[in-house]
Specification:
It is built from 13 helices and 12 strands. By secondary structure, it is an alpha/beta fold.
Length: 341
């Protein structure tokens, strides 16, 4: 069976090619009845537009690139779901690449997206200095929106969460439980760390408590095996201090979701000896033993808003007049047995 083309579709409907094309693209010049008739007939004949021809005509590929540091946790999959649903509704496809928390891999991913001629790029940088010059160079021609790790020196829309407030709220929850000695486990060279650590410090200052430098821990998140080893070493060291911590806050999804397992391996009782809370969007938090108190982020909203902002920029004819926004959504704390017993 011959492939259905725009020309053959128009002939079968006894319409001009121009009318059919406008109907398929929701042009205001075409009545709703005609649009529906054309779309129903196109679906019946399994018509698909020639993407290459459209691209040559419009200069657009209807494709959005997404670069993020990793794709190993529910946090990333939920953001991607929000992006996919919104992009599809706006008639865009998405192409996804992971930098795997490696700056050279991130550089290659950025360049690859340019080579794929994406219309715009959703970019979660590894940290605030990673590939800044290249990102600035790309953004002069291809729109970029930053998401999640928004502490990045690029003039554009940025979509993330109130990181400091999330950590501060977790500290206050622990203080109210009379857990005043709190360690915080942060990711090394992650763009979210500075603000989440700032919230930790702010909460201590608000409650007139000293920050103990030994309680601030950094872990390199390169592999789960290496992360577990580092966390074990840090926990053993902390528990040997003259004044050991009574609680741990995980400053990233990966750290938080692995804390309970590492503490169980070391036979440290939670929450009796150490309470645990942290950033985590896992749906398994209630099923863990003990169930995990979490700082939850509105991931699907982050993804959806980032796509809408990017498409707005793509469709702007004069981008010099755009007022860039930094959109930070609130987090929420879900309390469970890892802190309240």
């Amino acid at each position: 069976m011959a492939k259905t083309t725009l020309k053959s579709l128009a002939a079968a409907l006894n319409m001009s090619v121009s009318t059919v094309s406008k109907a398929l693209n929701d042009s205001y010049e075409i009545s709703d009845n005609t649009k529906q008739r054309v779309k129903d007939f196109a679906k019946k004949l399994d018509y698909h537009p020639n993407v290459l021809a459209q691209s040559l005509k419009t200069g657009k590929t209807q494709t959005i690139g997404v670069i993020l540091p990793k794709m190993t946790s529910p946090f990333e999959s939920q953001i991607l779901e929000g992006m996919q649903l919104t992009a599809s509704a706006l008639h865009y496809k998405i192409v996804i690449m992971s930098s795997m928390e490696n700056e050279e891999t991130e550089r290659i991913a950025l360049q690859s997206m340019v080579n794929k001629a994406v219309d715009g790029l959703l970019f979660c940088p590894i940290h605030e200095r990673s590939n800044v010059d290249l990102a600035k160079q790309i953004s002069s021609k291809t729109p970029i929106v930053i998401f999640d790790r928004t502490d990045y020196p690029l003039e554009t829309h940025k979509v993330g969460v109130l990181n400091a407030e999330g950590t501060s709220s977790a500290c206050k929850h622990l203080f109210e439980l009379n857990r005043k000695k709190i360690a915080i486990f942060c990711g090394t060279n992650q763009g979210i760390t500075a603000k989440r650590l700032a919230g930790y410090r702010q909460a201590h200052q608000q409650f007139n408590l000293d920050v103990v430098p030994e309680y601030i821990v950094f872990c390199a998140i390169k592999s789960i095996e290496e992360l577990h080893l580092q966390m074990e070493q840090h926990i053993v060291r902390l528990l040997k201090l003259p004044d050991p911590p009574e609680a741990i806050i995980g400053a990233s999804d990966t750290i938080t979701t692995h804390l309970l397992g590492v503490l169980a391996k070391l036979e440290v009782k939670v929450p009796e000896r150490i309470a645990v809370v942290g950033f985590a969007n896992t749906d398994l938090a209630l099923s863990l033993n003990p169930s995990l108190s979490t700082i939850r982020q509105p991931t699907k909203d982050i993804g959806a808003i980032a796509v809408r902002k990017l498409v707005d920029v793509i469709n702007k004819t004069n981008r010099s007049q755009i007022v860039w926004e930094e959109i930070n959504l609130p987090t929420s704390i879900q309390l469970r047995r890892s802190t309240i017993g």
